[in-house]
Amino acid sequence: MIQGLGEGIYPSFCRDGWGLEAGWDHWSGDYLYATSVAGDDLLRQLFAVIEAGLASHLPVDRPG
Fold first, then answer.
1. Which residues contact 52 (CB under 8 A, 6 or more apart)?
2. Residue 10 included in any domain
3. C-alpha to C-alpha distances, 56 to 30, 47, 48, 50, 61, nearest whole angstrom
């Protein structure tokens, strides 16, 4: 990781036509940024999996 004041750069990921940039800054925290349409599709799929996993752990509002 290359680190500066308030930001950092992690290694990039590239494979089979998709690309992702990884980094960190003091506003966003850790992030992945798609550099291709295929990378954007991959991040959308990853978000859907994470969102589904989180939804199963959220408390359910039950009328008292």
1. none
2. yes
3. 24, 14, 13, 10, 13
Is 64 a domain residue? no
- Does some domain include residue 8? yes
Q: Which residues pair with 18 in a beta bridge?
A: 15
Question: How many domains does the chain divide into?
Answer: 1
Asked whether residue 63 is assigned to any structural domain, the reply reads no
Q: What is the pTM of this model?
A: 0.66
Q: Which domain holds residue 38?
A: 2-55
**Dihedral of the alpha carbons of 12, 18, 43, 4, in degrees to the nearest 10:** 20
CA angle 27, 55, 62 (to 5 degrees): 115
Report mean pLDDT in 10-residue bins for the chain, 64 residues. Answer: 69 87 85 92 92 77 63
What is the token pair recorded at 37?
Answer: 């349409």
